[in-house]
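Table 4 source record.
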Amino acid sequence: MNSDITVILTLFKTPKKNLHQLNQYKNFKVILFDQASNLENKKMIKKILKFDFKYFFSSRNLGLSKSSNFLLSKVKTKYCLFTQPDILIKSFSINNLKKILKKDKKAIFVAPKYSKKKIRINSQKKLGYKTVKKINAACLLCDVKKLKKIGFFDEDFFLYWEDIYLMKKINGTKYRMLEAQNIYAMHEGGKSSVNSPEITYIRNVNFTFGELLYDFKVKKLRIIKILRKFLQNLILFFFNIVKFELKESKNNLAKINGIIKFILFYLRSFLSIKN
């Protein structure tokens, strides 16, 4: 058991195949947050995972930002691996990420390189790394003390853009982000949750919402962009309805609702400032 690394994962309607993959973390402390779930799901997961883990759940979907912040608050080790159920990474790769993080005193986290195919790793290769301004946040080994000091994800974000906003925040501090050169993880991409029209709809709503929220946070929001996106998707919605392109029309509707969700957020923010 690696005593100084905790693996934290958010689950949301995770396929059984990906739950089985979590056995790759059996040599680490693991904390799971299961959204839109119940204790029955915990029993099912306990049958799949062949090791002890901490489990928390919510009966509703709180979003990735809130669940990730909750998980980080439960971490007691020096390092934590923030990852997703559709990531495959070897234990020795995680430990090599730790070696890199320990080398650089200003590093707040380090990420592996990614591949969709199995890669033969030459263990004799030097553990090289480089400082980057942007990083793929699907799998990160984090220095817990530093991350808790500056804060993890902004909870105004629900599912998308929270990582981009975090990187912008880190780039304004004394800390830096690292990308390993000879450490790899496999990322299936989009497989953390089951594929269903409901999940696709949630993703489309919150990608659009997150994009506008990010622009608002960095003071680059333009009213013309909101109007253009709204009118464009409204026209496409009716156009796709006429063509019986129901899948595309639903995507347009999701984006419209993402815009409305942002407008409501903006109005609440404006009223709270005024009060």
